[in-house]
Specification:
single chain; alpha/beta; 7-stranded parallel β-sheet; 6-stranded parallel β-sheet; 19 strands; 15% strand; globular
Length: 551
């Protein structure tokens, strides 16, 4: 047994069924012999993105894995890892490196050093006998506390080396741990929530990672108290956006309901959220009372002065919090639930009325909001997982697409890697093969990663990609680089992407009329249901209007 064989054996015992890889690492062959399917990509970062999407949809219960070859492979994966780190996604990275005899010799690339700033934990296997111990540490980091990418560097001489008979190879799979939180902290949190005048709840990604039942308990808390709920960007889908108490998602563009209630609220009650101050988000929290429930102490007082905190698992704390709330409401203290549903309905009605002309627009080139509207009309959100790319696709779809079940939408944006959505959709499909997995991407983003459509075709991962092609970097305004744009056309791009998709083996359509959008979406969905990847290129206008975008 080689070192690579031992790594593969341990991965299998941890429930790993596949790993992304671009040869040659040594783990593609060892993994295949152990029953772990190797997925081969056109570029490393898309493979990392797939692992990311897989871990998100499984709530980290099953781990997405990507193995990089030494040198250029490990170097080229950085963007995908950085984005996973920004969004706290638990993925396992297994880069090979040069033999230990070359460590410290220029120009040897050491992934464990270079990736230290974008991983939760980063280390290297020092000897072949330490493989079980190092992998145990890696999986412990993956399954405790705030999630994040974990990297274990595997020197190539260790991967190739044969194990001697005296080296133990026994290994027990790692079990995750959860903490409840201090009961007194939970009691005070309950009193602060009911004692506020106009509270709102912010649900974060921690609600999703705590498991599907947690979203149900969050809904129970909202209904019990009457407190409106908004989600963070990464927390979108943690609370059903068709619910009367839903405000939508606080993002780089957002709903009128979020803006209205955020402006008027006196307390923000965060559950499973980091309270990260993002440069393009609705983050005017400084004058609010803040209660934060998180499983990571590093989140506390990170960007804002927190008035009260409960440290622990979102689901376990919700269980205790609901009991405390019920007791307070049943007491003779006069505490009553809030009544905000009529106010929410009024704001929502006026907001939709304002935006309907764009959502139902018949103009050509096609308005991107019409595409989002048609996607909503022609899909069942309970059987669909939608994600978006960076820039305009993100800011246009997040306010208007209504997620109704946990992980029915993958929203992201603390880091904004273009092209990220393609791999996310592929990973989502690997995790939920019965679901329709859709990614909305701009032409510029598709231009960066589009060749991996061939990967989806070859590896039989049927996804549906919608390209919003406005032949421009639409997110940028004329004032961002007026001289460069005037003299050199810096903002504008080109390309016939449906032809590229066709050449890569995907089913493809290209539409130029708004009347064609709905029928084309339906045809593409039917193709995906039959097991084929589909690409729909929609020729859109450069739409500058985005709800409440401040950037």
């Amino acid at each position: 047994m080689t070192g690579a064989d031992l790594v593969a054996k341990i991965l299998k015992s941890e429930g790993v069924d596949f790993m992304g890889v671009i040869p040659f690492n040594g783990l593609e062959e060892a993994g295949a012999k152990a029953g772990i399917r190797p997925l081969i990509f056109r570029q490393e970062r898309v493979g990392v993105n797939l692992a990311d999407g897989y871990s998100r949809i499984t709530n980290g219960q099953k781990t997405g894995v990507f193995a990089m070859q030494a040198g250029p492979g490990a170097e080229n994966a950085f963007a995908g890892v950085a984005t996973a780190y920004a969004d706290s996604v638990p993925i396992l990275l297994l880069p090979a490196s040069n033999p230990r005899s070359r460590h410290g010799v220029h120009p040897t690339f050491r992934p464990s050093d270079t990736y230290n700033t974008v991983t939760k934990w980063s280390s290297s296997v020092p000897t072949i006998s330490e493989i079980p111990a190092m992998l145990r540490r890696a999986f412990t980091q993956l399954r405790t506390g705030r999630p994040g990418p974990v990297l274990l560097e595997l020197p190539s001489d260790i991967l190739r080396a044969e194990l001697s008979d005296d080296i133990p190879t026994n290994y027990s799979a790692v079990r995750g741990t959860r903490s409840l939180g201090d009961p007194q902290d939970i009691k005070l949190a309950a009193k602060m929530l009911l004692g506020a005048q106009r509270p709102i709840i912010q649900a974060g990604q921690g609600v999703l990672y705590a498991g599907g039942a947690t979203s149900v308990k969050l809904q129970k808390l909202a209904e019990l108290t009457g407190v409106p709920v908004m989600t963070s960007m990464a927390g979108k889908s943690a609370f059903p956006e068709t619910h009367p108490l839903s405000l939508g998602t606080r993002s780089s563009s957002t709903t009128d309901m979020v803006v209205h209630f955020l402006d008027k609220c006196d307390l923000i009650f965060g559950i499973g959220t980091s309270f990260t101050r993002i440069h393009h988000g609705m983050d005017k929290f400084d004058d609010k009372t803040l209660v934060q429930i998180t499983n990571c102490s590093a989140d506390l007082n990170k960007d804002y002065d927190i008035d009260h905190a409960v440290l622990g698992d979102a689901e376990l704390i919700l269980d205790s919090l609901i009991l405390e709330i019920e007791e307070l409401l049943d007491s003779k203290s006069g505490t009553q639930k809030f009544e905000f549903t009529n106010e929410i309905n009024e704001v929502r009605r006026d907001w939709i009325k304002e935006w309907s002309p764009l959502l139902e627009s018949s103009e050509t080139p096609i308005n991107p909001y019409r595409v989002i509207h048609e996607l909503s009309l022609n899909t069942d959100p309970r059987q669909t997982i939608v994600t978006h790319d960076s820039g305009s696709p993100r800011d246009q779809i997040i306010p208007f697409y209504k997620a109704v079940n946990p992980n029915g939408f993958i929203a992201w944006g603390k880091s904004t890697q273009l092209g990220y959505s393609l791999g996310l959709a592929m990973g989502a499909r690997m995790a939920e093969p019965s679901k329709l997995c859709v990614n909305l991407i701009g032409d510029y983003g598709f231009g960066m990663v589009g060749l991996d459509i061939e990967t989806a075709v070859r590896e039989k991962i049927p996804i549906f990609t919608i390209i919003l092609n406005n032949s421009a970097m639409g997110i940028y305004r004329p004032q961002n680089f007026p001289t460069a744009n005037e003299l050199y056309g810096t903002k504008y791009t080109g390309g016939d992407y449906s032809k590229i998709a066709d050449a890569l083996g995907s089913y493809n359509e290209k539409v130029t009329s708004p009347l064609e959008v709905g029928p084309s979406i339906r045809r593409c969905i039917e193709v995906v249901k039959l097991g084929q990847t589909a690409v729909l290129e929609v020729m859109t206008k450069e739409e500058p209007e985005m709800p409440h975008r401040i950037f």
